[in-house]
Amino acid sequence: MRLRNIPESHDYFMNSPYAAAEPEGLRGRWREFFARDRRKLEAEFGCGKGRFITELAAADPGTDYIGIDKYTSVIYKGLRRLEGCPFRENLRFACLYASTLTEVFAEGELDRIYLNFSDPWPKKRHADRRLTSGRYLAMYEQILRPGGTIEFKTDNRELFDFSLEELAANGWTVLAKTFDLHAYYAERGLAAAGIADCADAESRAGAGDLSGPDESEERMLIRVRIMTEYEEKFSGKGKPICKLIASKL
């Protein structure tokens, strides 16, 4: 699908309080940028309109979040959605290409990486462009802290199988996986959290202290249940959503 250019998106992004306008200058200084150097720092690569990372930041104020996409025309739509909402001190957006990640993040700077519905690049000759290819896994290993994790969701089973193979081939450990995330929810009497707007997200954020240990049950449920736009669309059509969590232990 062709991306529609929005002429005003660049200037809007550069002047937004949520923008990290010069991310290369923040390498090794992201926690200082957020002015809270002891908090966890997590990023979504390919954040699109930013629904997932925005709602995650609202629900988990004890963690700092960065949404990354290569197009300001896409991020622009997410920034406009934030107008009139309470300011999220723990959320920023950056516009850059994934191939430059090690130029933007220092060794061990991130605690977690989210990859949600990444471009599958279905042709074999483009396999190294997939965000779960060995090429990118090597970058993630550099910028994640020891024991840091990748969380990956997709509706594309072929991409998911490819990702499992790449992780194994590059020495990563898959800590958890499912080939049907919403069936997993149903078996446990859970429901995916499709938060519609900022006010709703704000009301959900008060259900307990989510700034405690990284893998507290409350925080785990919040971060795995928030849906992206694509997830809501595909799961609504009955398409299984695959998810995995992996670490280079």
Structure description:
The protein is α/β, with parallel strands linked by helices and 249 residues long. It has a single domain, classed as 3-Layer(aba) Sandwich (Rossmann fold). The chain is built from eleven helices and seven strands. A seven-stranded mixed beta sheet has the order 3-2-1-4-5-7-6, with helices on both faces. Helix 6 links the parallel strand 4 and strand 5. The longest helix is centred in the middle third of the chain and has 13 residues. It is globular and about 40 Å long. About 9% of the residues have low confidence.
Task: List key phrases describing it.
249 residues, alpha/beta, Rossmann fold, seven-stranded mixed β-sheet, 7 strands, globular
Mind sketching the topology for me?
Elements: H1 9-14, H2 30-33, E1 40-45, H3 51-59, E2 63-69, H4 72-81, E3 91-95, H5 101-104, E4 110-116, H6 134-143, E5 144-154, H7 157-169, E6 173-178, H8 181-187, H9 198-204, H10 217-225, H11 229-236, E7 242-247
Parallel strand pairs: 1-2, 1-4, 2-3, 4-5
Antiparallel strand pairs: 5-7, 6-7
Question: Summarize this, please?
Answer:
The chain is α/β, with parallel strands linked by helices and 249 residues long. The protein is built from 11 helices and 7 strands.
